[in-house]
Design goal:
This protein is of the alpha+beta class. It is 38% helix and 22% strand. The protein contains six helices and seven strands. It has helices spanning 13-27, 64-75, 78-82, 92-97, 115-128, 146-159, and strands at 36-43, 46-52, 84-90, 103-107, 131-132, 139-143, 165-169. The strands form two sheets. It has a four-stranded antiparallel sheet, with helices on one face. A three-stranded mixed sheet has the order 1-2-3. It is elongated.
């Protein structure tokens, strides 16, 4: 069987900035928005870390796991970083394509909203972390779990009570 040895591309100054930004995000987590960071314990000394973040878009996919590892080494300590068995990084659009964000929060009957309500719902979705996916102008607000989506709906209802918010689960989701 052939053996292929590949070297990582060189890290850029932007990649070094992403390490610092990710450390800052780890130290100051927010209830919504990006990045979405999941640390899943899979054994006594093994973790899978996933970071969903649109800032990965300008970063070489081969460098992304290295950035995650460096950020955790700086945030926690080098011993914690050694427990990361898998480090996965994806943009929101990539995560949607992979089925990692199966729950979407959106207003019911958005097409019936009055013009002033449309601006309010777009603003509320954007503040909650919605993004534009693909070439369309529609915003999408996606979550990993039903609990996360329900928490977002509660926050949106508090911001915009005149709009009826709901949750839709993708048919191709793994749950």
């Amino acid at each position: 069987m052939p053996v292929f040895e590949m070297k990582l591309p060189r890290q850029t100054s932007r990649d070094a900035e992403l390490v610092l930004e990710l450390v800052s995000e780890l130290r100051n987590p927010k209830p919504s928005g990006q990045p979405v960071i999941e640390i899943r314990e899979v054994g006594p000394n093994a973790r899978h870390v996933t970071v969903i973040w649109d800032k990965w878009d300008a970063c070489n996919p081969q460098i992304r796991p290295k950035i995650i590892r460096e950020a955790f080494a700086n945030y926690r300590d080098p011993e914690f970083e050694k427990t990361i068995a898998v480090a996965m990084a994806a943009t929101v659009e990539e995560a949607i394509d992979l089925g990692m964000l199966p729950f979407e929060v959106k207003p019911y009957r958005w097409y019936q909203l009055k013009e002033e309500q449309k601006g309010a719902y777009r603003q509320a979705l954007t503040e909650e972390g919605a993004i534009r996916v693909g070439s369309g102008q529609a915003l999408t607000l996606r979550f990993r779990t039903l609990d996360e989506a329900e928490a977002a709906v509660a926050r949106l209802r508090a911001k915009e009570p005149s709009i009826e918010w709901g949750i839709v689960q993708s048919l191709d989701s793994p749950d």
